[in-house]
Amino acid sequence: MTTLLTPGPIRLAVLNTLGGTKLKTLYLPTPDKGSPELEWVAKKNDTDLIDGSERSRILGAIPVLRVKWTPYDDRSTNGYTIGVADGNRPTPEQLFALIYGTASGFLKVSTGNGASPLGFVVGRVDIEKISYKAAFVNFSLTFRGRDIVTNATLGAF
User: Fold this and answer.
1) pLDDT digit string (tens) for 136-152?
2) Where are the domains of the chain?
3) Which residues contact 67 (CB under 8 A, 6 or more apart)?
């Protein structure tokens, strides 16, 4: 079973403890068309047997979410205040500082703004392809889950 993504702004929750309670939620702009992309990376143990054959034990999968903005809209539009307080939209610089300043397991990411947005605890965030065009910043993020899930279903938050 796989999870469908909800379109809309990306929600980023800052947690108070490792995988714990939400301190605040930040709203990132709606990503580019064709984004976000969700991939499930299989985690398994492969063992070579004496006769050369393989035996595999599937442990589960880790969610990987790729998001791209060209450009990242950090204007105070659609009712969002710019900043890093609860309910705000961070600037690219504030977002990068948050990503690099937060330990693994203290962020949770979710796609869309639906009634029960689906998300996962983040183990690592990679910032890729930062470029500037006039006053706008273009970049993409890859959120890699921290925990292995036994079925391809995202949790709600």
Assistant:
1) 889 999 999 998 888 77
2) 10-47+54-156
3) 10, 28, 31, 35, 36, 140, 141, 142, 143
